[in-house]
Amino acid sequence: MAQTITVIPGDGIGPEVTEATLEVLKAAGADLEYDMQLAGLIALKEVRNPLPQATLDSAEKHRLLLKGPLTTPSGSGFRSINVELRKAFDLYANVRPVRTIVPGGRYEDIDLVLIRENTEGLYVGVEHYIGMHGDPRAAAESVMIITRFGAERVVRYAFEYAQKNGRKKVTLAHKANILKYTQGLFLDVGHEVAKEYPDIEWEDRIIDATAMQLVLDPYRFDVLVMENMFGDILSDLMAGLVGGLGFAPAGNIGTDAAMFEAVHGSAPDIAGKGIANPTSLLLSACLLLEHVDQAETAQRIRDAVDTVVQEGTARTVDMGGKANTKEYTAALVRALA
Ligand code: NAI
Ligand code: MG
User: Given this model, what pLDDT does residue 82 score?
Assistant: First the structure.
């Protein structure tokens, strides 16, 4: 029986890239059924709730989501629905692979995976102001939270991922020289877990040096694992190594649920124009296919993306081409035929 997944098209370019993605999945013969649900600004407009109960119920039932970008108002307004969903299903590992698709960029043949802890660190949002001398915001404090439990499961996920995907090496990036307690704990747990995987090469590296090495010589890395904020920053850096956010997919993985999404946002500047690049969401759907044991279908889609992008006649505007979303999608469908 086909696996049913919850699909949230989302805001801005979300509906456009979702439509394209579902069309390619169909052409590739993905064995999936779709339960379409609302979230984000569009849900706020239509049912006055940015995260409707029906969407949560659907996610609760299927435990597998494909999600377009959601607009989050900055400062005031509702909290990030992305963060809410990650929390609701305890999606602790954020898996972000990057791979060179468009030739002629800064580097050829990049193939790296960053695994970011998704529930702890500074992003737990435990912060407050400290008032002094009549200034209520004279200072501010944030608390970085690392637990042995949280560190262990994400590092273990990185090693399991490496093993399952035939990868050779895991690098743990940290700042234990300065943050001796929080980062020190993360690093210590890393050393312990690494002992259980003697067949996988293992190293730890200071985060700032890792950032420099990623730019100078990305080929020395394979799988990288780190806490939340470091992972947030370095995963964008790594997307930059392969030509930007248009090609960067992400999976948010928990013990019994997973959500796959494009790394980019809702791109309000080009929403509704029909020119968005759907590759990031499509590659996220490929991660979902692998997650449900349809790796062969995922590989056929990736091959089609490679073929169309490298051939060059149907590239979208962000890739330096002239094709719109529909033309690029049609080319992918033809490449799959
Ligand atoms: P953005 O990623 O939406 O856009 C940045 C730039 O990249 C824009 O010029 C946009 O046109 C371009 N771009 C992004 N995706 C593209 C695509 N698929 N094809 C072609 N061009 C693309 O980031 P921005 O503008 O900072 O954020 C817009 C909204 O998205 C905000 O409300 C933000 O909170 C939200 N957001 C949501 C995310 C999610 O749902 N996971 C992630 C990041 C941002
Ligand atoms: Mg980010």
Answer: 86
- Which of 241, 275, 302 is the endpoint of a domain? 241
What's 316's DSSP letter? B
Q: How many domains does the chain have?
A: 2
Going by their DSSP bridges, the two strands 111-117 and 249-253 should be labelled as unpaired
Q: Both 57 and 142 in a single domain?
A: no
Boundary (domain end) residue, out of 194, 226, 241: 241
The preferred substitution site among 51, 94, 266 for testing ligand 1, maximizing ligand atoms within 8 Å of CB, is 266
Question: Catalytic residues, which ones?
Answer: 123, 175, 208, 232
Tally of helices (H runs) and strands (E runs) in the chain: 11, 12
263 shares its domain with 201: no
Task: Answer yes or no: are the C-beta atoms of 288 and 22 closer than 8 Å.
Answer: no
Q: How far apart are CA 198 and CA 206, in angstroms?
A: 22
Write down the pLDDT at residue 77.
67
11 in the same domain as 97: yes
The bound ligand whose nearest atom lies closest to the alpha carbon of 247 is 1
The enclosing domain of 147 has a CATH number of: 3.40.718.10
Residue 76 has a pLDDT of: 60
Please tell me the distance from the alpha carbon of residue 312 to that of residue 126, in angstroms, as a whole number: 48
Ligand 2 centroid – CA 231 distance (Å): 8
One domain, residues 47 and 132:
no
pTM over 0.90: yes
283 alpha carbon, closest ligand: 1
pLDDT for the residue numbered 72: 80
Q: Do 55 and 2 sit in the same domain of this protein?
A: yes
Q: Cβ distance 274 to 324 under 8 Å?
A: yes
Ligand 1 centre distance from Cα of residue 278 (Å): 12
Ligand 1 atom at shortest distance from the alpha carbon of 250? 41
Tell me what pLDDT residue 246 has. Answer: 82
Residue in 11, 91, 264 to alter for ligand 1 test, most ligand atoms within 8 A of Cβ: 264
Low-confidence ranges of the chain (pLDDT < 50): none
Domain housing 46 = 1-110+242-337
